[in-house]
Amino acid sequence: MKKAIISSALLVIAATAYSQQAEAAHVECLIGGTSTQQFFEPDFCSAMTNTDRPSVAFRFVADKDVADVVWSYSASASGSWECRSGSYCSFRDDGRQNHDVFYDASACVTRVLYKDGTWENTKHCATGHYSKQPSNPF
Fold first, then answer.
1. How many domains does the chain fold into?
2. Burial status of residue 60 (CB atoms within 10 A of its CB: 0-12, 13-18, 19 or more)
3. CATH classification of the domain holding 47
4. DSSP secondary structure letter of residue 133
5. Measured in whole angstroms, how far is the alpha carbon of residue 78 from the centre of its chain?
6. Which residue in 53, 63, 65, 91 could disulfide with 24, CB within 3.0 to 4.6 Å?
7. pLDDT per residue over 21-62, tens digit each?
8. Strands 26-32, 88-93: pairing kind
9. pLDDT tens, 55-95?
10. For residue 112, is it within any domain?
């Protein structure tokens, strides 16, 4: 009986440690072009902007030092992406589309190489949801 209790306790501790480790790495985002200060938020961010060319910044947060990251990304508006092999990625809306009220940009980390030589395939993502100021046609 004592062995069963100890085994159960060790299993719970191991499962807890594994789940905390699995959730430690994540992608955060923040919306640029707002009248208020924004902060990086895990998984999802949203804001009303006061420009027709807002931006969404993404960063990968891990519990180990990162050497290289592979990003995948998409956006509902046209614009430019800057996502190299580092822990940061960004989208800048070019202001050409103003027919919708809300827009979004999503970025995912699909592969991570850590500085200790280990790597993992992953799917850590964040989505930024924003509304933008219509451009002045004059």
1. 1
2. buried
3. 2.60.40
4. P
5. 19
6. 63
7. 445 799 999 999 999 999 999 999 999 999 999 999 999 999
8. unpaired
9. 999 999 999 999 999 999 999 999 999 998 999 999 999 99
10. yes
Measured in whole angstroms, the distance separating CA 137 from the mean position of its chain's CA atoms is: 33
Q: Please give the mean pLDDT across all residues of the chain.
A: 85
Q: What is the number of alpha carbons within 13 Å of residue 11 lying toward its C-beta? A: 6
Nearest-CA neighbor of 66 among 8, 18, 109?
Answer: 109
Predicted pLDDT of residue 97: 84
| Domain coverage including residue 122 | 25-131
| Cα gap 69→120, rounded to integer Å | 10
pLDDT at 111 over 50: yes
